[in-house]
Amino acid sequence: MSEHTDTDAAHDEAAMATARARLYGLLAATFDGEAETTAAALDRGAFAAVAEVFPIDIETADLRGDGYDADSLAIGYDNLFAVPGTHYVPPFASAHAVDPSEAFESDSRYHTAGEAGELLGDPAAEMAQLYAAAGFSPERGDEIPDHVAACFEFMRALCEREAALLDEGGSEANLDAVRDLQARTLSRLGWIDRFEAAVASSDTVEGVFAAIARLARTFTAWDAQEVVQTDLQPSETTSSELPDQ
Amino acid sequence: MSADDSGEDGAGVSRRDFVKAAGSIGVIAAASNAAVDVDIDDLWTDDEHHYVGDDYGEYGASDVIHTTCGQCNTFCPIKVRLADGSGTGEYSSLVRKLAGNPYSFLNTQPFSQVPYESDPDDVAMGDVEGSGDVETDRWSVSGGRICLKGQAGIQTAFDSYRVRQPMKRVGPRGSGEWKTVSWDQVIRDIVEGDDDLGHPGLKDIWGYAPQETVMSDWEAVQNGELSKSAFDEKYADDLIDTDHPDLGPKSNQIVDVGGFRRNFIRNRLWHQGLGSINSIHHAGTCGVSSVMGNVRSHAAQKKRQYPDIENCEYLIVWGTNPMVANKGPTWLAPKLTNAIEDGMRMDVVDPRLSKTAEKADTWVPVEPGADGALALGMARWIIENDRHDLTYLQNPSQSAASDDDEPTWSDASHLVLVDEQAGPKARASDLGLVPEDADTADDFVAVDAATGEPRPASEVDTAVLDVDVTIDGTAVRSVWSQYRERVFEHTIEEYAEMAGVPAKQISEIADEFTSHGKRAAIMAYRGPAKHTNGFYNTRAIATLQHLIGNYDWKGGQITPYAGYSTMSGRYELGSVPDGHSPWGIPLLRGGVNYEDTSLFDRDDGYPAKRPWFPVAPPQATQELYGSAADEYPYGVEALFIRPYSNNHVMAIAGGDEIPAVLKDTDAIPLIVASDTVIGETSQYADYILPEPTYLERWENFGTYPNKRLADEKISQPAVSVVPDARPFEDVLIELWSELDLPGVGEDAIPDADGDLWPLEQAEDFYLKLAANIAYGRNPVADASEDELRVFRESHENGLGEQFDLDRWKAAVTDEEWEKVVTVLNRGGRFEEPTEGYDEAFAEHGHGYDYAERADGSNAYDGEHMRYKLESRVDFYSEVVPKGKHSFTGERFDPLPRVDDVEHYDGTVQAAVSGDGDRERPLRLINWKPRTQGMHRTQNSPWLRETRPENPVWINPQDAEERGIENGDDIVLDAGRKTVDAVAMVTSGIRPGVVGAMWGWGRRGDGATTETIDGETRPAVEADGHSDYQFDEPMTEEAGYAKGRDAGFAINHVQPLDEELGDTGLSDLVGGSNAQYDAFVDVERR
């Protein structure tokens, strides 16, 4: 095991990891329905500030201002992500999977075998495996392993861990391991594209969740392509796990 | 997230800007506490390194034979993967691996089996459409599930201590010295007798005369129409004793002790070929009291209690350990854990925290042998709180039950003739309700709730439960009235005191049991049953389920004896042209009342010299050797034993007394053992004949009624390890041919057209059995050309020169052969869970519950099971009180009851009301080890490595009193015997109770030295490993096998019956040997 010697570089990397952890944490709280946190972030312009870093088309107007109180956000959240109905967008990966989870052992009444769209399908199993590998128990996401809030919470924890390892001068092996897990996790978030599209078409009245979903999609894509991959030391166990691009 | 959106723009994002922007989040986001724990050097994830291996070798169906495991009595369908390089060496083939058979639902849990018509090559490689991807779906290429014992079967077949040639003893019995002899000589010796050893031959011993002729002549003697001397002269060579013709023919003195292959050896050869009534299996050492307790509680066949696990909401597992035993590890364990995961509550009644109890919601550590009190306490709470299903209980007949959609009904409302001896239930004609020739004359009688009149049960819709009246001068009382009175003999508090379970807990369990409608059930087996009061304990438990009427309901008690016909159809395998009819008093005195025999007068009435079992089958194995020594009711002239599955010296409580009898050539002049090894019992034989192991021979093991679908397993030879081994069937065929007995040789087996077929070797029988299976219900498909080739190649690979395809084919017709191959290629027949299964499987895959969810389920019929008990269930048994205790002459009890544990003469071994100060206060129980199938599997170093001896479990409370700590060397004092052991201090056993696993303390099969042809083989020391460090049970860090003699034999510290002195205690009603009734003390060594 070798110690980091370039402390400045480590410091920058740690700051980057902390920043990512913060945004993942905020997105996790938002998609977990923690309306007060979302309202506070909107109030302080936190979403807008981050969105502006990404030179793409995000309606930042929807992401700032004090027009949102926690109660109305909670109602909006419930309508979109909690209560099945005309505006419902299931906030978990299995529902947005393209391939059915025929092989997944499930007697769930949500599981219509042979068709995509279910609860606790293969994507849930894959995420659960990743959590198990890291000794992680999601607190967000209603105990649905592939819930977007759980996935972001996991990324938040992984980024925090990365920052801590960098700050403490942890071993290369551990750093590799935690970055490897980030890559694996991000590689399983391709469904966010479809999720975002669904939210965009359902959240047509206020548009705040559509905008946040857009930010989430952009950020995770950037994180996967630019941060994790480029910063990751290629290794035989991880390079093949990165998403096809 | 595709990169397209951020693509080229993303590259322009400044990290510094991002970090800065994100800084504003810091004070907002209320992060959760969930954190990762990545401090490992080499990260792994499940799909890469755990559970699913993805490195496998290519092989096909020609490398596979499907057969049945014989390592324990679960008899799992298995897949034998033959090793490459077959046909080399002394054996025909090596076995690469044993696995579960993927065609069988028994071994594919929690998945669904592959469709029956799946191509064997696809199955071998996991290529069946729907069986998923080996690398991601936990669907192993090796097939279905198998347990650790099953995998170790390779070490049973290839044990270097196998008997390789017929052997004849040198010196006295048990001297440990043998010489090998030819098959010809051993057959000659057994038939003709041998002057060297001084034993008679079967020719000298055998004699037979039909019962009708003998008894008609005997009647003539009584009437003075025939002189006694003429009778004596006529039957001197045929009857055991012409003064007591009811003992039967001399053939009865030739006794078979086996266990399995009952249809062939017992039914055909022993009963009908030889005309001997004495073919004995393991029942007495096993759960026969439980079986009989269930049999007497149901009018149709129901020997065992099992729930429909998938739909059960509340399950009481009572004195059995289905995570480990009782058809458990491969079949019940995954079902139970899945059901628990799906919300089923399971409570476990057991003095010990078994593997099953570990998974339970509540562990109820009952006092051993007081299970009846616990059950009756529950019954009292249920009745007091009106929680019994009144509608169900008031149905007196099938028609009334059908109206309520109930497949079964009870005898609760039936009237009993209380003033008559043995208290039979009244029939309609008995009470003059209908003429004697009326259709309803034999109906039971119930009082119609609508009219208040007694009527034939089939005419009553709703019956009165509580009846105690006199009808035309005849006193009658309803079953319910008597059962209720019995239940109310004690208060719940009194029952609680007896059972050692808090009254509150009894109420709680009873409440829960009656809170799920029909979706509650009990699974009980040996725990309550292996005491002298085991029959009544089982009755008390079984009748609890009558109170809720859960039979045949989804989620309730199931009884599907569903299979395919084996003994008839294409061939009448049970039929022996010109066969003998066995008759006479069985050696083990089952099914006969002592006072109904001529011995009653001879011996001056009660008490009988040894116990009789008038309402149990003649299978009280524990009585065999003492009876032979006492020649009671008659002597044994020749004993044939197959100790692979009946190693009585180890398996019987008090089995350490057996060798003295076996050594005595006067007691039993000829003993022949057919065994795979020189075991504890076979070592006292005159001859040991090399027997193939289960991987090398035929068999047809049944499946317990704990399944939703029909199946029929068939074992077939997969390898030949010992070239000179012969299945005992073949040996007997030769012996019987020499003796010119029926049932073997030419013209032995009739087919459906009455044409006769020869029986010259085992396969002549079993291939016809396979044909019967193939044609049962809807015939199976013919094997394709490809499948026929696969069959030939796999058997050539496995059996080498031992495989004679033409000979096998000749055992059935050409037309049948192609269907027989279909069955053999799959190891039997296994019903599919739904119609159109192959298409459904291709669509939905193996992880789908077809029985539950698909249309056209073969398992369910609406809310009912498809395979049903569909009969009356009995609180009151008419049969039981017909039997009398042979010591006292008292009638047995028709109802469940609490009873003491007693010796034959009534001396109390353990009182239900509790015992005062005992010299040795600890009750000793025992259980099946998780890592051993039977004593016979102790030869496996793999298994002994997982658990190298049997420590004595002791509660910390009892340990502290004695200054014992975990891992201490202790002495266990059972009074008549003391043994050395190791203490395992654990709260997982009830205070006042100690216990250990059985299966240890062997003295045969490589545990001691053996001398063959002057060469001495030493005992197995430690299989080449370093010494095992077993200082602290459950804390060992490495596993090394100890010798085969490790640990102590639990059955050798059991108490002997005080009156008999040569065997353990017996349950005279159910027939079991008591095995949980020893009292011991322990102290530090």
From TrEMBL, chain A:
Coiled-coil residues: none
* Cross-referenced SUPFAM superfamilies: TorD-like
Chaperone as UniProt keyword? yes
Q: Which UniProt keywords apply?
A: Chaperone
Tell me, what's a Pfam family for it?
Nitrate_red_del
Protein's recorded name: Molecular chaperone
From TrEMBL, chain B:
InterPro entries from the entry?
Asp_de-COase-like_dom_sf, MoPterin_dinucl-bd_dom, Mopterin_OxRdtase, Prok_Mopterin_Oxidored, TAT_signal
Domain of life, source organism = Archaea
Molecular function (GO) terms for this protein are: 4 iron, 4 sulfur cluster binding; metal ion binding; oxidoreductase activity
Q: Which residue range or ranges hold the Molybdopterin dinucleotide-binding domain?
A: 922-1002
Keywords linked to the UniProt accession: 4Fe-4S, Iron, Iron-sulfur, Metal-binding, Molybdenum, Oxidoreductase, Signal
Residues forming the Molybdopterin oxidoreductase domain are 295-726
The answer, when asked if RNA-binding is one of the entry's keywords, is no
SUPFAM superfamilies (alphabetical): ADC-like (SSF50692), Formate dehydrogenase/DMSO reductase, domains 1-3 (SSF53706)
Which PROSITE patterns did the record assign? TAT
Instruction: Output the Pfam families linked to this UniProt entry.
Output: Molybdopterin, Molydop_binding
Tell me its family.
Answer: Belongs to the prokaryotic molybdopterin-containing oxidoreductase family.
User: Can you name this protein?
Assistant: Molybdopterin-dependent oxidoreductase
